[in-house]
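User: I'm putting together notes for a lab meeting next week and I want to include a structural view of one of the chains we've been expressing. I don't have a solved structure, so I'd like a prediction I can at least talk through. The sequence is below, exactly as it appears in our construct file.
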Amino acid sequence: MTGKETFVLTDPLVDPSWEFLSRLLGEKLTWWMQIRAYAMDNYPDVTDVWRYYNDGKQWLYRILKKKNTICWMTVVDDTFKVTFYFGQKAIPVIMASALPEKVKEEFLSNPPFGKIKYISVRMASLADVELVLQLVDLKVKIN
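Assistant: Thanks for the context. Below is the predicted structure for the 143-residue chain, given as structure tokens.
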């Protein structure tokens, strides 16, 4: 990712309804819904929640399996991002996975947050949806 992104959902008084998201994302909202449906249809105990976080001054959407976060989603510029956080035990699993080499290289080069590292996908095409679905499976497998 190059340059600074503009986070869109920064008003704590404006709940990000699906109608509001549709206006912001247009057809890309179908990608969001595909990711959501995949997680909920394929894994028991999956829930989702919107919450405004004061530390980041923005609304974030979280998909959870029980109490474990699978991924975080947020609206940026003219699209959205999906971010996954992984602990140290995930590194060999990710490196042995079928993820594209570019994703693995970015994962290794991303700065850690304490003992966790992240993979963030800026949604630009249908191929990104497939990548996110792979990451959902990996995250559930690792947790």
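A couple of points you could mention at the meeting. DSSP finds five helices and five strands in the chain. The chain has a mean pLDDT of 94.

User: Perfect, that's what I needed.
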